[in-house]
Amino acid sequence: MFTYILYGLAGSGLAISFFKDRNKTKMALKKAWKSFENILPQFLSILIIIGLALAILSPETITILLGTRSGIWGVLGAAIIGSITLIPGFVAFPLAAALLKNGAGYMQIAAFVSTLMMVGIVTLPLEIKTFGKRATIIRNISAFVFSLIAAVVIGVVL
Q1: Where exactly are the structural domains of the chain?
Q2: Where are the transmembrane segments (predicted)?
């Protein structure tokens, strides 16, 4: 129901804008369409990655590897995978939601997503080149530790 209300508000805003200034509204819609066209390949990659992940991993496998009973090993495994993987946030969050629906635990997904966003093993050479070796290592280790702390907090709260 909430979604329909948001669509109604967006449609109403578009109508008001159209009556106020047709040219600006048409330009805005053209820009929005161009943005959608630019995002579409990445959006399709989201669907493919989620589809592959769910096709390869059954809910039982997800529960064993990343479920609440996987404990600290599941959290560490998720954190390591998140640290190594280079996935944009708009792909990671739907993937995390799909994994949660299929049996993953909150603490494990929190570790995965937070390391995915904050730790950059793949981008390490570029970061060392830009910020220096010492700063890069300190930042990545701090981010990894913070991700584990955040996962524990999520596990306690939820």
Answers
A1: 1-56, 58-157
A2: 39-59, 71-100, 106-126, 138-157
